Amino acid sequence: GEAVAFRLRALRAREALVQARWPGTLCDEVALLVRERALQAPREAKALRVAARRALARMTLDDLSRLCTLRQVRIAAGAPGDDLAPLLAQARACARSGDCVSLRALAVNGRDLRALGASGRRTGEALALLLSRVMEEELPNERDALLAAAREMLRAERP
Questions:
Q1: 65 φ, ψ to 5°?
Q2: Using an 8 Å Cβ cutoff, are 87 and 48 in contact?
Q3: 84-123 confidence digits (pLDDT tens)
Q4: CA gap 104, 89 in Å, rounded
Q5: Which residue in 38, 51, 98, 120 is a FRET match for 79, CA 20 to 30 A apart?
Protein backbone atom coordinates (compact mmCIF):
# COMPACT_ATOMS: atom_id res chain seq x y z
CA GLY A 1 0.00 0.00 0.00
CA GLU A 2 0.94 3.52 0.77
CA ALA A 3 3.73 2.58 3.21
CA VAL A 4 5.47 0.48 0.54
CA ALA A 5 5.19 3.35 -1.95
CA PHE A 6 6.80 5.74 0.54
CA ARG A 7 9.61 3.22 1.21
CA LEU A 8 10.32 3.00 -2.53
CA ARG A 9 10.29 6.78 -2.87
CA ALA A 10 12.65 7.03 0.09
CA LEU A 11 15.09 4.61 -1.55
CA ARG A 12 14.95 6.56 -4.82
CA ALA A 13 15.42 9.88 -3.02
CA ARG A 14 18.42 8.55 -1.09
CA GLU A 15 19.94 7.11 -4.25
CA ALA A 16 19.57 10.44 -6.10
CA LEU A 17 21.16 12.36 -3.22
CA VAL A 18 24.07 9.91 -2.99
CA GLN A 19 24.66 10.34 -6.72
CA ALA A 20 24.58 14.12 -6.21
CA ARG A 21 27.31 13.54 -3.59
CA TRP A 22 25.33 14.80 -0.60
CA PRO A 23 26.71 13.79 2.80
CA GLY A 24 25.56 10.30 3.83
CA THR A 25 23.86 11.40 7.05
CA LEU A 26 21.82 14.00 5.16
CA CYS A 27 20.84 11.37 2.56
CA ASP A 28 19.65 9.12 5.37
CA GLU A 29 17.64 11.93 6.99
CA VAL A 30 15.89 12.86 3.77
CA ALA A 31 15.09 9.20 3.12
CA LEU A 32 13.61 8.92 6.62
CA LEU A 33 11.45 11.98 6.09
CA VAL A 34 10.12 10.62 2.80
CA ARG A 35 9.59 7.09 4.17
CA GLU A 36 7.70 8.25 7.25
CA ARG A 37 5.65 10.97 5.55
CA ALA A 38 2.37 9.15 6.25
CA LEU A 39 3.10 8.64 9.96
CA GLN A 40 0.02 9.33 12.08
CA ALA A 41 -0.79 9.82 15.75
CA PRO A 42 -3.89 7.76 16.57
CA ARG A 43 -6.31 9.34 19.03
CA GLU A 44 -7.22 6.17 20.97
CA ALA A 45 -4.79 5.42 23.83
CA LYS A 46 -3.90 1.80 22.99
CA ALA A 47 -3.52 2.57 19.28
CA LEU A 48 -1.23 5.49 20.18
CA ARG A 49 0.95 3.23 22.38
CA VAL A 50 1.19 0.64 19.61
CA ALA A 51 2.00 3.31 16.99
CA ALA A 52 4.70 4.74 19.29
CA ARG A 53 6.30 1.31 19.75
CA ARG A 54 6.19 0.66 16.01
CA ALA A 55 7.80 4.05 15.35
CA LEU A 56 10.57 3.29 17.87
CA ALA A 57 11.16 -0.04 16.14
CA ARG A 58 11.92 1.87 12.92
CA MET A 59 13.70 5.00 14.16
CA THR A 60 15.33 6.72 17.10
CA LEU A 61 13.60 9.20 19.38
CA ASP A 62 15.72 11.94 17.79
CA ASP A 63 14.47 10.93 14.34
CA LEU A 64 10.88 10.97 15.56
CA SER A 65 11.44 14.36 17.17
CA ARG A 66 12.73 15.77 13.85
CA LEU A 67 9.72 14.29 12.04
CA CYS A 68 7.43 15.88 14.61
CA THR A 69 9.07 19.29 14.12
CA LEU A 70 8.86 18.99 10.35
CA ARG A 71 5.19 18.04 10.56
CA GLN A 72 4.48 21.06 12.80
CA VAL A 73 6.16 23.31 10.25
CA ARG A 74 4.12 21.77 7.41
CA ILE A 75 0.87 22.20 9.38
CA ALA A 76 1.76 25.82 10.18
CA ALA A 77 2.28 26.35 6.45
CA GLY A 78 -1.21 25.02 5.74
CA ALA A 79 -0.40 21.44 4.70
CA PRO A 80 -2.74 18.69 5.89
CA GLY A 81 -1.61 16.14 8.45
CA ASP A 82 -1.78 15.10 12.09
CA ASP A 83 0.34 16.76 14.73
CA LEU A 84 2.82 14.10 15.83
CA ALA A 85 3.43 15.62 19.29
CA PRO A 86 1.18 13.04 21.05
CA LEU A 87 3.04 10.23 19.26
CA LEU A 88 6.40 11.68 20.29
CA ALA A 89 5.26 12.06 23.91
CA GLN A 90 4.04 8.45 23.94
CA ALA A 91 7.27 7.22 22.33
CA ARG A 92 9.26 8.98 25.05
CA ALA A 93 7.10 7.29 27.68
CA CYS A 94 7.60 3.90 25.99
CA ALA A 95 11.37 4.44 25.90
CA ARG A 96 11.44 5.48 29.57
CA SER A 97 9.48 2.40 30.63
CA GLY A 98 11.65 0.08 28.53
CA ASP A 99 8.87 -1.19 26.26
CA CYS A 100 9.96 -4.00 23.96
CA VAL A 101 10.49 -2.61 20.45
CA SER A 102 13.24 -4.89 19.13
CA LEU A 103 14.13 -8.55 18.87
CA ARG A 104 17.03 -7.86 21.23
CA ALA A 105 14.59 -6.79 23.95
CA LEU A 106 12.28 -9.78 23.42
CA ALA A 107 12.27 -12.21 26.37
CA VAL A 108 12.99 -15.17 24.04
CA ASN A 109 15.52 -15.64 21.26
CA GLY A 110 16.29 -17.91 18.33
CA ARG A 111 17.88 -20.59 20.52
CA ASP A 112 14.68 -20.82 22.53
CA LEU A 113 12.60 -21.31 19.38
CA ARG A 114 15.01 -23.81 17.86
CA ALA A 115 14.71 -25.82 21.10
CA LEU A 116 10.96 -25.96 20.37
CA GLY A 117 11.60 -27.29 16.87
CA ALA A 118 11.72 -24.13 14.74
CA SER A 119 14.43 -24.03 12.09
CA GLY A 120 15.80 -21.82 9.37
CA ARG A 121 13.74 -18.89 8.17
CA ARG A 122 10.81 -19.95 10.35
CA THR A 123 12.80 -19.06 13.48
CA GLY A 124 13.13 -15.43 12.41
CA GLU A 125 9.54 -15.26 11.21
CA ALA A 126 8.29 -16.60 14.54
CA LEU A 127 10.42 -14.12 16.49
CA ALA A 128 9.11 -11.25 14.34
CA LEU A 129 5.53 -12.37 14.94
CA LEU A 130 6.10 -12.64 18.69
CA LEU A 131 7.63 -9.15 18.73
CA SER A 132 4.65 -7.80 16.82
CA ARG A 133 2.22 -9.41 19.26
CA VAL A 134 4.15 -7.92 22.21
CA MET A 135 4.13 -4.44 20.64
CA GLU A 136 0.39 -4.82 19.91
CA GLU A 137 -0.20 -5.73 23.60
CA GLU A 138 -1.54 -9.17 22.65
CA LEU A 139 1.21 -10.90 24.66
CA PRO A 140 3.33 -9.79 27.60
CA ASN A 141 7.08 -9.75 27.05
CA GLU A 142 7.51 -12.64 29.45
CA ARG A 143 9.47 -15.78 28.65
CA ASP A 144 6.79 -18.31 29.64
CA ALA A 145 4.00 -16.53 27.75
CA LEU A 146 6.16 -16.15 24.64
CA LEU A 147 7.28 -19.78 24.71
CA ALA A 148 3.65 -20.93 25.05
CA ALA A 149 2.65 -18.76 22.08
CA ALA A 150 5.61 -20.04 20.06
CA ARG A 151 4.69 -23.66 20.84
CA GLU A 152 1.14 -22.97 19.66
CA MET A 153 2.40 -21.34 16.43
CA LEU A 154 4.73 -24.24 15.69
CA ARG A 155 2.07 -26.83 16.53
CA ALA A 156 -0.42 -25.12 14.19
CA GLU A 157 2.07 -25.42 11.30
CA ARG A 158 2.62 -29.16 11.66
CA PRO A 159 0.44 -31.42 9.51
A1: -60, -45
A2: yes
A3: 999 999 999 999 999 999 999 999 999 999 999 999 999 9
A4: 23
A5: 51
